[in-house]
């Protein structure tokens, strides 16, 4: 129930968390939209400000022009008003007065034009000076802001550097103290080492004296006792059976098994790679189901179809090599004859790679020449062609070194023993190079597949084939990496195991001597096996394991068994006491029975036959009352009924004895049954108590989990509240920012109004001027 409630709480929390995440996304989107709107409003404000300035300038120019025209009209009206009465009065002197008026008019016009131009020039100078002043002021303000920010940054950098320098100073002081302590400890260790070196020198002197004495003794024994030293000559020494190193053989078999698994994975990946490459040729650049592919691709597909006959033998050769390494053999390069077959299979596969390489390069060139090939795809194809050349070269290099390793088992003069380690090192380097080439192929082919998937003519068949090729290339890359790391990890062991061979010699001389040595080893093993005595019968291993499982799975502990044994011993002692008591009772009963029989016999002699019937009835009544159950009563009465009326003393004694014995057996069986039930119940009670203790522990663990869950719930709730508060704060900040923007807009509008008023005042002043 607690787990169900906890799960329900977790589900509710998950739902609330998902809702809050959705609200978080909505709020983020709203914040981004508001920021975009504020930016747009700023841009609109700038545009409006610029248009307002332009309109203000146009309005100033228009007002100035209107004032000029109004003055001109007033002058013309005044001149017209002056000219009309003069024309009425002085019509006669018209020509002379008209000339004067024209001269005056021209003078006025020139004067007026000069004043207008001067006023316009003054307005322009004033406007330019105002604009220049604003521009300079803005530049100075921006420069002041940049300088302030730079000063703050420099101050922060200075503070950080001072803090860093203080930390480094503290760290250096701590390091100094640690180094001082370390120097003191090192001085103490140096003193101890000096004392140890003196003791070791003394021990070395004693050991040298002891070993020199033993050497002289052994040399004398060898010179006197050994008639022939077979280790002196390498030809004879190669026939000696080396000491059997079972650990080395098991290690080599384990390594061979791992190598077999890696080769099997590599073979599977190579088969898939060649097969899917064949399928790709049938699909791209020309689908064979729609149109015929080129003769080059047909030949390439035919060769690729034969890949299994070249790739499968690699697995078979490695399997034969693994089977040749057993616990009874001696595994060195001179005895691994099956490595030659694996090298031959690898050579045949490399011939296959050489055969398909030109067709593969030509096929990639044909893809590049097709109309569907883009520049990026052409570049990937060129990279893949280079990678295929590298892959073939790496396989050739690897085959060369493996062929060299196979020489000691066939041609002993082909490779010197001193070059074994360098050849093994080069094999590891070649495997790492193979891994690097496969990584490049995987990278370039994945890029090529991604480009081809984006082509409009890419079919689903091409996409699936590319995915299959890419998966096989990835498998090849992983397999090459595993083999390279596996060989590098075991390289030191391979180099060290080369010295495993005959004693006091450089190794086996030839494969023939190694084969003879193995035969001698088999004979020696058979002889030792014949000398071995058969072991005594014991408990089978499976039965012992089953008994051990039963013993471990039983609920009774050692203390419980000891208590049961003690209780059973006490019960046995009680039963023995009861047995002695009942033995005494039986003896007393027997004596009484003999007396009673004697008495009955005396009575029978004295009395007649009439009393026989009554006596038999009396004995039957006594036997019926003695039995407590009906079965025993019947068992007692049946033999009496079958006998004659003459009583037999021995039969009655046997009946009574059998009755009491049956009763004792029944009581003992009931007692044993009760004891077994009590033991069983006791074991069950112990098991239940243990289960109860385990349940209590699980209950405590669950309570701890519930506490942690409640803490997590409270933490999540706190996080939710903090996120809500942060979003509310962000919204309030945004609203404040919008309010400040509105305030700035209103201030700018007020400034525009003041500028308008000032321009109107300037225009009035100009009019008055």
TrEMBL record:
Which InterPro entries does the record match to this protein?
PPP1R21, PPP1R21_C, PPP1R21_N, PPP1R21_six_helix
* Coiled-coil zones: 3-72, 137-196, 558-592, 685-726
For this record, an example GO cellular component is: early endosome
The organism's place on the tree of life at top rank:
Eukaryota
**Where in or outside the cell?**
Early endosome
Broad class of where this protein is predominantly found:
other
Q: Where is the Protein phosphatase 1 regulatory subunit 21 N-terminal domain?
A: 11-112
**Renumbered residue ranges of the record's region Disordered:** 84-104, 749-769
Record-level Gene Ontology MF annotations: RNA binding
Keywords recorded for this protein, A-Z? Coiled coil, Endosome, RNA-binding
Residue spans with biased composition (Low complexity)?
95-104
Pfam families noted in UniProt: KLRAQ (PF10205), PPP1R21_C (PF21636), PPP1R21_helical (PF10212)
Ranges annotated as spanning the membrane: none
Cross-referenced PANTHER family:
PROTEIN PHOSPHATASE 1 REGULATORY SUBUNIT 21 (PTHR21448:SF0), SMOOTH MUSCLE MYOSIN HEAVY CHAIN-RELATED (PTHR21448)
Name of the featured protein = Protein phosphatase 1 regulatory subunit 21
Q: Which organism is the protein's source?
A: Pan troglodytes
